[in-house]
What we know:
Elements: H1 2-15, H2 19-24, H3 37-47, H4 56-66, H5 70-87
Amino acid sequence: SAALLAPLNRYLNTLIPSPAEAYQSFTTPPRLRSFSSVNFLASLKTHGTPLPFRSASKQRQFYEQWLKTPAFGLWLARQEEVVTRVLSGKNSEL
Length: 94
């Protein structure tokens, strides 16, 4: 599962606000930027995955389908929750 999530975690890290961005948002707590399937797939094309796929098209097809599953939605919601807690300074509950 770590290999499956590696490209998602790499892309997710690009959605986390920088410390400067987090510091500047006084009125609202800093949040994770919106997940974009198009941008994720572009990142996947550039960086690949540790999973062995027979072709780049099979890799893309696999992730396109996986992004549509309830499991992905649950994973993303959990990641957003974790990032929000850390950014708001409430990471002791993790």
